Amino acid sequence: MTFDLRAVTALDLQIATAVDPQTVMHLDSQTAVAGLTRPLAAQPVDTPSLSPAMLVVFAIVVVAVVLFVTQPVPLDVTALGVIVALVVLEPWTTISPEEGISGFASPATITVLMMFVLSEGIRRTGAVQLLGERMAAFAGDSDRRQLGSIVGVSGLSAGFVNNTPVVAIMIPVVIDLAERTGTSPSRLLIPLSYASMLGGMLTLIGTSTNILASSIVARDAYLGRPFSMFEFTALGVLVLATGSLYLLLVAPALLPERIEPSEALTDEFDVSGYLTEVTVPTDSPLVGTTVHAALEAVDVDLEAVTLLRGEDAFGASIDEKELRPADVLIVRTGREGVIDLAAVEGLSHRPRRGIDEADLEITGDENGGTEQRLAEVIVAPDGDLVGETLESTSFRQRYGATVLALRRGPDVFNTRMDLRPLRGGDTLLVQADHDALDRLGRNRNVIVAQEFTRPTYRREKLPLALGIVAGVVGLAALDVQPILVTAIAGAGAMVTAGILEPRELWDGVDWSVIVLLAGLIPLGIALEETGAAAFLAGHAVAAVGDLHVVFVLGLLYLGTALLTELLSNNASVVLMIPIGFDVAIRLGADPYAFVLAVVFACSTPLLSPVGYQTNLMVYGPGGYEFTDFARVGAPLQVLLAVVTTLGIVVLWGV
């Protein structure tokens, strides 16, 4: 005998026990283990017929997916478009204006916002930097210790601090470690990204995806309650341990060496072939004109990098300097431009050996010359530079840094970079002085990949900051207050305690994620209320219904992980939780198990650099090819699918 147990009351249980004790015994054991208010459904559920409302919602989803994948506009702009479409088409989507903007007031959105603030407070104290320093001291010259310390620090840190800032802080530490020990950074950066992803599953606050998933399942249509702080920590530890062993024992045989150990930056970016020197003759008509005006007057594509005047040298801010006789300019130009220089009146090409770091890294002097250093600067995937060009942002004037080359994965661009739209993960080779590098190091739009600058951390505030985060986590874990309330209180305490200045409060917030969450939440409601999720789940069950439920659980994990490679992790969790839940109901399985499979799969897009922000952040600095991620990540993806599926079965049952 079977029952529809989707909403069971105490009286229902008494009646059911009298008729079929075995069913209720099974129900009680599942409920006790999972802590659910919404137990199993043990009878088939009809699949709804395709309706006009479903077609409208499916159309919105398809358009959103295409825009998410191709990104002609930023993800947050697409999310705003989803809100507008859902509300305008309310007769079919059922989403009222109030529901359309409900994502902005969602506990998930506000909690994620506050967690960004808490993460920024931890960053300002230099906690992760301190761990990195200890890591470097521990690792020494041992390759295994290097890798182990990177995996350990990034994995454990990401359980309590958002993994994106963890990776941003760790990149210069890892590159500095690689340089000092003669290791290729390509051997270390993919493990850094992967470990931070897996570490994010240790707690509810490890990633924004976990918090969003908790908000979704708290609705009455699903589990009826949010996840607790350490609800899936046992499985998170198992996943992190499995991934760490893989990264330590198997990945080294698969990781490439795209960048030679300790290779000079000018060689790594192939700069010397595009830089040459020109001199200003005594009788040159360009004497007295500014550098900018002089180079615009000649019909050759030139960009001044450095001005040499006797013993003095000047770097980024030379456009308005007036040329004098015998001045020497180091200029960037294409190979064709070098030939054209011979015909330029007023400048004399000075053939010489290839220009190297010694020519570009200048020591300051008392006559106005400033010290110039070379550094790699990564375009942050969530920053304002994405989609812009060096010209549209006035990069040189704005940041006081000259861009010498641009690397996008394995490809290096040395000319006509000013009009090339920037992408997240692009690595710029810049020449800048100490002050400019210091400003870049504090700018959330970029990541300085070398530790040339030491940001001023509030180390004395570190114990207090850790205490605040511990209070936020502890009070939420003990159910004294919801995580929403403790996170808001913690963010306020960061400012009150002086860990964050009031003007810094929102500096660490990834606003694109906040808007994305707000736009996706009503889309999830529309999938649920129109029956679109149930329609998809019904057809999925029809396709795999003959398989054992554990295999279906594993297939759901793999399918969700592959979908996340195309979409953002937050978009995937919104789309797949309703489907996974309904699949479980139709199979008579535990919906909790299927929801967990979706949540964990959304945090493991390991196959491409664009699947997750941290992958994109290491793509340029590692000089990786697109397929490097698949080669290292595919075996790990399969391994995690098995471990996560079996872990869910053992810990919670299906």
TrEMBL record:
Gene Ontology MF, one: monoatomic cation transmembrane transporter activity
Secretion signal span: none
Keyword Protein biosynthesis annotated: no
Segments traversing the membrane: 50-70, 77-95, 101-118, 188-212, 232-255, 464-489, 509-527, 534-560, 566-585, 592-612, 632-652
Residue ranges annotated for the RCK C-terminal domain, each copy included: 262-350, 362-446
Gene Ontology, cellular component aspect: plasma membrane
Record-given protein name: Di-/tricarboxylate transporter
Species: Halovivax ruber (strain DSM 18193 / JCM 13892 / XH-70)
Lineage of origin: Archaea, Methanobacteriati, Methanobacteriota, Stenosarchaea group, Halobacteria
